[in-house]
Amino acid sequence: MIKVKEYRGHIRNWEALCGELDIDPSLARGEREEAILAKAYKTWGCRMADHMYGMFAFALWDEEEETLFCLRDQFGTKPFYYYQTEDGRLLYGTTIRRIMEQPGFVKELNEDMLQIYLTLTYGAGEDTFFKGVKKLLPGRYLIWKDGKVTVERYWTPSFHPDESKSLEDWADEIHSTIGQIMPEVKAKDETAESFLSGGVDSSYVLAMSDAKTADTCGYAEERFDESRLAAETGRILGRECFRSLITPDQYFSIVPYVMYHMEQPLGDASAIVFAIACQDTAKHTKLCYSGEGADEFFGGYNMYRNAERYGENLKTFYVGNTNIMKEDEKKRILKRYDETNLPINLVRDIYEEIEGLDPLSKMSDIDIQIWLEGDIYLNVDKMSTAAGLEIRMPLTDMRIFDIASRMPSRYKVNEEQNKVAFRTAAAKMLPEEIAFRKKLGFIVPIRIWMADDRYNQDVRRLFQSEIAEKFFHVEEINGIFEDYIGGNSDNWRKVWTIYTFLVWYEEYFVKR
């Protein structure tokens, strides 16, 4: 007998799987998806994820074989962690706190992660900030039998450009595939809303969905505020639009909540905004669409337009979407610095896998394996779960990636535009001025707010605290902070990354 011990996610092609596996499709969602997992494992074993579309992480206990089988989806949209106790037991779960609550767990800081964090602003790779707690990485499964853990990889991103198609061919395939996926993302008896920014991804998802309501957030500072663009998109598409206006006080007051529920520090300033958006949206719906995935698949970031210029040099420096602090600066501010603990070590094996690909495909592959899992999907999962909101991401799908993996890079990025084919597809549903609008990113006025003494008092407190003294040369980090206050606004990311670590540490190692 197969027992589902742990499960988080949503299986999109459940109707087809129910037919294939002889499962009653009228079962309630939870019971139905557990039945799919158990029967899929009995039918396909370790290759079961090859037959499933969606977002999932789970653990199954095979009573007959006395084996635990754990799996995380191809992109890592849902987290999964494990920890071996001194007496050989395996603790596991989709949250670290679940592991911490179990007998045999010993809470210790993994300080090696801090050095990586100060560059990337998130915890990349299989290690976490808790010593001994490992992440099951995307596209992997874990088998625990007779006290032994084995981790195997069942999926690796691969790129095989098909030169036979035109731009319009690619746009048609994107559009028809999203049209195929959207009805699977939500059951007929469910009602969903849709997050909406000023960008093309969320606008396209909204246009292709049956959501009657869009949810957006903005600020009083007009130059940072995308919500007016979002509201105009909603009006054009005939959808109601809820707008959250985020204040500096609200933003800074929620930081401890975010770091606690994130379970590891995250220096992405947009995570705070997303947490507030999830809380506000959960007041009137429990299900929401979001547009993550298209940027990494289809060349959405402006820096991807530099790919050819970087060329072979990529493998010497490119470790993902963020690179906040260089090694000489970390050496100067950290009390404990290890010359061998370098961010580039996290991607050396990936560069071996992608040898021979064009530079844009290499950057995309690194971001799919490192950045998406470590930052984007972590943020979406943790903040939505904390708010009691379920988020589904239609563009994060193996069928969408399959298109991207076959598409030549010139249809993703050119000298004038990024995400060219995707925008061309979106223009089938959106006005051109929206489909081809310049990428703004999820902008936050933190660059301004954190320099204001009305809002930065907790930053000052922690930068001068005993916690800071444990890890940093306090005069050095306060020098960075004062330089920022004095007008060097480029330092805001460094200040924010240090601050979020200190808040997280206080939450997990001082208060609790």
Automatic annotation (TrEMBL):
E.C. number(s) listed in UniProt: 6.3.5.4
Domain Glutamine amidotransferase type-2: start-end pairs: 1-147
InterPro entries per record: Asn_synth_AEB (IPR006426), Asn_synthase (IPR001962), ASN_synthetase/amidase (IPR051786), GATase_2_dom (IPR017932), Ntn_hydrolases_N (IPR029055), Rossmann-like_a/b/a_fold (IPR014729)
Ranges that cross the membrane: none
SUPFAM superfamilies in UniProt: Adenine nucleotide alpha hydrolases-like, N-terminal nucleophile aminohydrolases (Ntn hydrolases)
Record keywords, A-Z: Amino-acid biosynthesis, Asparagine biosynthesis, ATP-binding, Nucleotide-binding
One Gene Ontology molecular-function label: asparagine synthase (glutamine-hydrolyzing) activity
GO biological process terms held by the UniProt record: asparagine biosynthetic process
Group of enzyme by EC: ligase
One cellular component term from this protein's GO annotations in UniProt: cytosol
Pathway: Amino-acid biosynthesis; L-asparagine biosynthesis; L-asparagine from L-aspartate (L-Gln route): step 1/1
Catalytic activity: L-aspartate + L-glutamine + ATP + H2O = L-asparagine + L-glutamate + AMP + diphosphate + H(+)
Residues marked Important for beta-aspartyl-AMP intermediate formation (site): E292
Family: Belongs to the asparagine synthetase family.
Protein name from the UniProt record: asparagine synthase (glutamine-hydrolyzing)
Upper taxonomic lineage: Bacteria, Bacillati, Bacillota, Clostridia, Lachnospirales
